[in-house]
Amino acid sequence: MIQLEHISKRFGGRLAVQDLSLEVPRGEIYGLLGHNGAGKSTAIGIMLGQVWPSGGRVRICGHEVTRDRGRALSKVGAIFESPAFYDYLSGWRNLEILSSYTRPTPPGRIREIIEWVGLSGREHSKVRTYSHGMRARLALAQTLLPEPELLILDEPSDGLDPEGIHEMRQTILRLHREMGLTILLSSHFLNEVEQLCGRIAVLSQGKKVFEGSLAETRHRESRVRLDTPDFAGAAGQLRAAGLIRDAVPEGNVLLLNGGVETHQVVRFLVERGFAVNGIAREQRTLEDFYLSLMETERGGKRPVGGPAAWPAN
Amino acid sequence: MFYHPLRNELWKLFGKKRTYIGFGAFLLGQNAMLLAFRFTRWQEHMERLLRGNGYLAEEYVSALTVAVVMLIPQVILLMPLYAALVGGDLVAKEAEDGTLRMILARPISRFRLLLAKWVAGIIFSASLVLVLGVTALIFARIWFPWRGMFVFAPGMVFNVFSPADGLKLYVWSHLLMTLNASVILALAFMFSCFNMKPAAATILALSYLFVNLVVEGIPFFEAYHEWLLPYHFRCWLLVYADPIAWDRIIGSVVVLVAANLTAFLIGQAAFQARDLKS
User: Fold this and answer.
1) How far, CA to CA in Å, does B107 sit from each of B23, B103, B216?
2) What is the ipTM of this complex?
3) What pLDDT digit, counting tens, does each position of A117-127 carry?
4) What is the CATH number that goes with domain A2-216?
């Protein structure tokens, strides 16, 4: 659905996006992560034909955006952080206006979407009287009109209260499940991305520094928690044998070398007389992974097991 | 294909209170001038002028005459201000509010969107002038009888008409005023297509007109008047001249239409090249 090939964008002397390539297949919920100014919004702007790329190609739904924007965006809906509306008009009129830029939408379809997002009864009130949550619903409604196949959501939960964030998350899941929509989600809420997305890309200073499935982020490094009376001694022997890369006494965490499994560690220690009371592979959260990646990107030493980058589970 | 974008622009334009400031100001201004004409020595001066030129003042101090008297300062002062105010908002306000990004996430081309805005601006100009002309006539008629028309613009026009001819010319002059208003609006629209605030677009358009006026007043530039917009804006008064200087009017209309189109195209080019980011 979305193909970016070697996209770059320069604003004056600043390179906002550098050689960015990514592909979002049909039916996927794809997460776009990165710090403020990483280039996420610029990349989304390029996808929607709002920002001209300095180089590279963008294809949406099989059509090149810079050359055939009309067809490329005919099945696309988008939400931006703090969605803007004509506050002096009613919600209904806003939906009529915005959806007609794609194609005229029959009133029945507008009514159906209003019910779906839960705005019934308030659709003829002026948008200036809407709460933040209602505006978010209206944003969602306009995205779903007329009938998109791809949703591009740029910080859709921005500014919502915890209840609103939860509701937005459930709605995104429903859209994916019930309507089979492909969704590109840019978000700062890592737990949201973790719960929704199948694949992610991480941008840092305009460059893609990671692309892969969430499973890959969890198992990229093997961390185990070892329960043994002599942790320091066990770690020393494991390191000497080349089974681990590092050990963190706080929390008794071992960082296994590539290809090493937990049963090998247990056998090795038992054979050398260490009592092993327990060993458990640690599940990494997306937050752990992201923070570690950012630390590496900034060129800082990654504090393996340190509280900032590796919060104890 | 074009109906929906244009309908949207008209909904947006006429849905906000700001659009009606100009209409309100015209109503206030007209009534103030009407009262001043009726209750100061202004009316007396006009009657003396008519008598001095051999006309019966009672025949020509009429609704049509007073309507034109009220129009002149409003066309010079208020109309540019409100046309520029709305023109400056057309693109820049939407960019500032963020609604432009919402629209341009849709498959409408930038050209078609701007064309719809520009046409909506012309419709606004026409409605502004229509309201200006109709209300001026209605208010004047409340106080003055329906008789012959007298039009006086120093150095340009001194003429009298029957009520029927006067009304016909009054309509013609308003068509030309619509063109003036749309050119002023197009200038502000052009600036608003660049990356700037709505107020800046309005101020730049008004500044451009002001500079034109100042330059026109400098004797050195007398030979270059035809290059300045205010010279052509005055063509609406020339329909009251005898004989009517059609060549001058047609020339001015061509220049004004060309200025309008040029402003639109410059705005288009600037808007096409822009990156739209929050």
Assistant:
1) 35, 8, 46
2) 0.88
3) 999 999 999 99
4) 3.40.50.300
